[in-house]
Amino acid sequence: MSQLTVGKDVLSYCTKCKLNLGHTIVAMKDVKHIAKVKCNTCGSLHAFKDPSQSSKQNKTRTKKTSITPSKVISVSDLWMEKMSNSKRKSTPYSMELKFSLGDIIDHSKFGPGIVEKVTNDKVEIIFRHEIKTLVHNKKES
Ligand SMILES: [Zn+2]
After folding, report:
1. CA 19 / ligand 1 centre spacing (Å)
2. Which of 6, 64, 80, 130 has the fewest Cβ atoms surrounding its Cβ within 10 A?
């Protein structure tokens, strides 16, 4: 391990060149800390700026703003949650019936499902593997 002393070369951020460049130590704060350096490129005297420390600070700053991963919920997860929360009895699906929000429907093809959205003539139902929009409230003419 080489000791830092006046006259030795170190890498420092140059305030004039705006780059990490080789500098010569001009003055020491104490045995471990450099006070002043002279840029080998432009020859200007300035305070020592540790290039490794300044880059570390920048990295942690950008990391903090990164997006937290959002949990992906699948249709079956949603279905499971909705079905377990509902205490209603299931009704066999028929397009003539009028369903309301939260109704449990037993569909001959898709199986059990729960009504998620209701419009005048259509219902959006969450089934085990897919979300379907079906006709309801169909008046027989
Ligand atoms: Zn310089």
Report:
1. 7
2. 64
15 alpha carbon to ligand 1 midpoint, in Å?
Answer: 7
pLDDT tens-digit series, residues 84-99: 999 899 999 999 999 9
From the CA of 2, how far away is ligand 1's center (Å)?
A: 24
80 and 128 belong to one structural domain = yes
Q: Would you say residue 60 lies in a domain?
A: no
Tell me how many helices (H) and strands (E) the chain has. Answer: 2, 9
Antiparallel, parallel or unpaired: β 9-14 and 19-28: antiparallel
CA of 63 to the centre of ligand 1 (A): 30
H or E, element range at 126: strand 122-127
Cα 50 to averaged position of ligand 1 atoms, centre (Å): 14
Say whether both 46 and 82 belong to one domain.
no
Domain boundaries, position 96? 75-135
Q: Is residue 111 part of a domain?
A: yes
| Average pLDDT value for the chain | 88
The Å distance, Cα 23 to ligand 1 centre, comes to: 8
The three-state secondary structure class of 59 is helix
